[in-house]
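Recall the central idea of this unit: under ordinary conditions, the amino acid sequence of a chain determines the structure it adopts. In this exercise we apply that idea directly, starting from the sequence alone.
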Amino acid sequence: MSRPAHVVSGPYSPPVPARELTVRSADGARLHVELHGPEGAPAVVLAHGWTCSTAFWAAQVRDLAADHRVIAYDQRGHGRSPAGPTYGTEALADDLEAVLAETLPAGEKAVVVGHSMGGMAVLAAAARPRFRERTAAVLLCSTGSARLVAEALVLPLRAGRFRTWLTARILGSPAPLGPVTPTARRILKYATMGAGSTPDMVEACAQVVHACPRKVRHAWSRVLEGLDLEAGVRELTVPTEVLVGTADRLTPPVHARELVAGLPYCVRSTELPGLGHMTPVEAPELVNGKIRELVTRYAVDARLEEGA
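Accordingly, the structure predicted from this sequence is:
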């Protein structure tokens, strides 16, 4: 499978990985995994969102791989991971567990970063012993646990049944997105990014999103429409930080606030003024800094304690 579309220059062009591998999930689905950075360095695992790919994390990989072992994987059906036999929250959890088990040495824990559907994968896996054994801390970016369609603000209509119905039809449409045109960029920026997003940010996201196969986009939209992971929030017992943009139309701040209220061990919550749904692209330095803080506090310190 060829590498999916992405920008080829600038800070949002994905670096070439040090190593690539294929991980098998519980149902046999094949997951494309990329490894960056030095062996033996503290580990960070990146789980991208709906319609994205490992290329979404280019700004994180470029910064963190200097002194971290960065592990990024394509969700099933996205990027270079072929479509799996099933779609659902259990598959999200299975896939994340499989990546952690295959890429982390025995006894090592990683900071796991989930954006949007990647955060939902974390919530789906939260109660599983293999996830807990391999996770030092979590950063949840622009995500939610339930009522995604009902709370979405992509349509400037009053909340209610009609808005929910129409939002579901638009977001879940099986129609192809087509090429990345000026109109497509404007639509994507409105729906997923803050007004201050620069053209290179918009272009990077547009190339990644438009590369997602339409059948995969539609299949996962049905899963997200009926999402209910509120029990997973209560099971996420590792130190967890929550991040959201105040202009996020897909997972607006109400979701982040509900996560904070339900998490057993929330260490910090941040609402970024004017930012949209694509926070790792819109505020890469801030997101990278938060990942580094979590690694230092919960992954590196744990290593030192175990070695003492």
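Strands lie at 19-24, 30-36, 43-47, 69-73, 110-115, 135-141, 240-245, 266-272.
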